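Notes from the pairing session

We agreed to fold both candidates in a single pass and log them together. This is the raw record for the first candidate, unedited. Please don't reformat it; downstream parsing expects exactly this layout.

Candidate A
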Amino acid sequence: QVQLVESGGGLVQAGGSLRLSCAALGRSLNIYDMGWFRQAPGKIREFVSAITWTDGRATYTDSVKGRFTVSRDNVNNTVFLQMNSLTPEDTALYYCTARLRTSTGRDWGQGTQVTVSS
């Protein structure tokens, strides 16, 4: 089991930027990847981005490509999401997620709210 602690959400105007952070807490974590999902009101939770821990391979959903950048700090088991050129359509609760090599399924954070005003 891993505990995921998110930070960095908030309110920003359209065109602005935010940086989300998520620290994975636990003993002897063997992380396969970490990333982000989001859920807007009335919509299903959707994949945003992820990064593999060993080789740093990043993936993105099409709607954020070129605007969002995912990165990792292997030493501190932390994943970041730099979000630029935000639009109101990016407004959602953003969840950090992790997959470990030693278990199946995903672990989830509590979520951090991102609100983009027009």
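Candidate B (folded immediately after A)
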Amino acid sequence: QVQLVESGGGLVQPGGSLRLSCAASGSIFSVFSMGWYRQAPGKQRELVAVINSGGSTNYAESAKGRFIISRDNAKNTVYLQMNSLKPEDTAVYYCNADCLIVTMRRDDYWGQGTQVTVSS
């Protein structure tokens, strides 16, 4: 099937930056949209940013002006550059990919999540 492996989370002070990465691998024929979601304790998972295969992006209001999503189609990898981080950005961040696999089945796949903690 498809595996999504995330990296780049950690502890950062308010105002700092982090860069998340997520690489998709497996029986992939094509990757459509890729995105990042987050879930804070006691809250529902929410969209942070998404990018399609053509490079068009969409951001949550809370991410606009601070976060930048990008992707490397040749590597099936998506990145999230997070700047000016705030304590309210603390959450588990999940990578998502809409993939067509070699059997021509299309489905959503999720990474295992990476913790981002913003605290002084």
